[in-house]
Fold:
Amino acid sequence: MASPVWKGTISFGLVSIPIRLYAAARTKRTYLHQIHKECNTRLKQPLFCPTCNRIVERSEVIKGYEYETGKYVLIDGDEIKNITPPSGKTMEILAFLDRDAVDPIYFDSSFFAMPDAQSEKPYRLLLKAIEDTGKMGLAKMTMHQREYTVFIRARNNGLTLHTMYYQNEIAEVAGYGQIPDVKLRPEEVKLADQLVENLSARFKPQDYKDEFQERLNELIEAKLKGKTISAQPKARKAPVIDMMEALKKSLAGPRPITVKGVPVPTRRQGRRAS
Structure:
């Protein structure tokens, strides 16, 4: 069984709900290790102390902040515990927001919140309340030596939490958001809107996979067997010379959207079928 990444309490008003958090989504990928090309040996990075000239045990490791090159402020585990705020154990809901009030760019990691024994009723009460009101909770939580702002929302008959990227973690790109000084003809806008409508489809997350990772695994399997695999065909894109003409051709006969060679039904295909 999966291990919880956090244990504590959700509180809203006077209601307290003991919960455990489990990672709801994590990146899965095939990692390439560093290999010594002379002998095909995987390179390692042990806990080696160059001053003592030996490998050290994990029990000898302490945390430190480098304030100058080679100089550290040392911090032990008890000192970390002393500065941990109350949100280290109690996730107090500070406010309730409209379900769609937050730009998805602020959503980071996702977790499933499961009720501990004897806390099913308050858990269900909070879930029912945010389902009925169309809201989500905004709370604070300290985990892994960092205080997070989290969103608590209803999903599939359970509570799902999302940690938030803070404003200073959102990148700023020069020029982003500045509308180019170009004029769009009403006919172009109408055709583009129609194309978007025709290519609209229902989202099915199971249809989308990391094809590069699959190809990487296939390459590794093939090399283990002394085989090779064919190269992926290169996609060719024709330059757009006449945007109106390109939009019209797209509407006249759009290519079907495919995932792994399987067509994804769009709204226009759905209307034709009916």
